[in-house]
Write a structure and sequence with these properties.
globular
Length: 119
């Protein structure tokens, strides 16, 4: 992962973790969705984001999120380098193969520093 993309991903994850610790799970999850968009082409970052989404699901006792995140963690580990649905935010209530629009500020980062830009 390019250092600038890593910085942005880490910032989203740190914000999510801080909000998770503070009990603001809804806002934490929105930062996890942003981290997911940034990290989904990188196996470990992708799986880490789904792990945290699972943690939010567990804390909320959200069976849909819990059951949805378990296969997504495995998929992230095994398929991130092959194909990912661009822009997918990663939550269990979003179809796992659905491509979605990417927020402009994240698109700029991905255009400059994403996997396709590395080649």
């Amino acid at each position: 992962m390019h250092p600038e993309l890593r910085r942005a991903y880490d910032a989203e994850m740190a914000t999510a973790a801080r909000l998770y610790d503070a009990g603001d799970l809804q806002l934490a999850f929105s930062h996890l969705e942003r981290a997911h968009i940034l990290g989904q082409s990188f196996s470990i970052a992708h799986a880490r984001t789904h792990w945290w989404m699972l943690k939010v699901g567990l804390r909320n006792r959200d069976v849909v999120e819990i059951m949805g995140q378990i296969p997504r963690i495995l998929g992230a580990l095994f398929f991130s380098r092959v194909w990912v649905p661009i822009g997918n935010t990663g939550g269990a209530r979003v179809p796992p193969f659905k491509q979605m629009p990417i927020p402009h500020e994240l698109q700029v980062l991905l255009d400059h520093y994403g996997r396709k830009a590395e080649k």
